[in-house]
Amino acid sequence: MEPQSLQEIARFPTPTAACTLSAMEINVTKMHGLGNDFVLVDGLSSGISLTPEQIMRIADRRLGVGCDQVLLVERPGRSGVDANYRIFNADGGEAEQCGNGSRCVARYLRTTGWVDRDAMIVETPAGITHLYCQEDGQVQVDMGAPRLAPAEIPLLAEREADTYEIEVNGGRVSVAAVSMGNPHAVLRVPDTDRAPVGELGPAIGKHWRFPQGANVGFMQVIDAGHIRLRVFERGVGETPACGTGACAAVVAGRRLGLLDPEVNVALPGGQLTLRWQGAGQGVWMTGPATKVFDARMTL
To answer: For the purposes of burial, counting CB atoms within 10 Å of the CB of 234, is it exposed (0-12), middle (13-18) or buried (19 or more)?
Structure first.
């Protein structure tokens, strides 16, 4: 059973808020997918535009609500779509896609009554996503077909390959590169507990070979149906779970002949189930979406 909604979040007075005439109140909902947490901002009732500074304030874990990403949920921009949503990292930068966030958006749209059915279609900067709310509380998402051509990731490379050698921190590492609407680098490691996530994550994520940066996954293959995964996300750092990162890792492992079409992905925050039949097919992700509270916040 979900916790009771908070009536109002405390207003956090700052010199900026006290002096500006543009202060506004917004409706927010705190949610998480396996500990990867989000603040969903209601842009359905009325149009809202957020500055990077406002995004960072919402995401601040001391002065705001606190989250990995802010999700601005908006009215659809065209027919056949139930809603749009935009993804902003805690540093104020905008991302293209978010797997755990998409599940939270689906549950939000369903429980608020904006959508009155379990199947829905939403749009992000990365394109159309199909979502399905299940009776057991899980949400299934068609994340679309992975993009593997270097120019579509984007990755600076002469030709497509299963893995790429890059120089980083005075050494060389082999990474798979996959776009799930956002760029990912995936490294195979013998033990995720000992993986140098804090060292290699930011170094690879900002490597010149990835002109738009990359989320960096550290994958341990347990067997053909199970992997462990840690992910260092652009603009956030390491998170308890990353849905697109899990998709990218399974795609990379399948292309290397290491994994079955269905894989259980164990992340620090919990487990996702991924299915990918191969080239040209969409990646299907199933996992939970949990509501924490509703609130109002003054910006």
So the answer is: buried
